[in-house]
Amino acid sequence: MQTVHLRIKGMHFDTSARSVQSALSIIRGVSEVSVSIAQREATVRYDPQKVLPKQFEMAVRVVGCEVERLDVETPRRLSPS
């Protein structure tokens, strides 16, 4: 699993936050979505074998908002001992 953080423009009310959360949650490969209106951000945990972060941008756009920034967390690997 990987995590991506989306900075979202146009998400000002509960209704828009719920729309963003719903749009992201129904994407195949997404396991968890959390949305913060105060930070104007959504955090998505997903399977990179099933979905690309670009699809998250499209889903946000469909509900009338826009992704200002998309940051994919790089998985940390343990170094061999």
Q: Can you put this structure into words, describing what you see?
A:
With 81 residues, the chain is of the alpha+beta class. The chain has one domain (2-72): Alpha-Beta Plaits, CATH 3.30.70.100. It is built from two helices and four strands. It has a four-stranded antiparallel beta sheet, with helices on one face. A hairpin with a 4-residue loop joins strand 2 and strand 3. Helix 1 (14-25) packs across helix 2. The model has no long low-confidence stretch (mean pLDDT 91).
* Strand order in the largest sheet: 2-3-1-4
Q: Low-confidence parts, pLDDT < 50 over ≥5 residues?
A: none
Rg is 13 Å
Q: How would you sum up the global shape?
A: globular
CATH top level class name: Alpha Beta
Number of helices: 2
- The secondary structure category is alpha+beta
Proportion of strand residues: 25-35%
> Biggest sheet: strands, sense, closure?
4 strands, antiparallel
- Number of E strands: 4
Task: Look at the structure and give the mean pLDDT.
Answer: 91
Proportion of residues in helical segments: 25-40%
Distance between the termini: 24 Å
**Number of domain modules:** 1
Order of helices and strands: EHEEHE
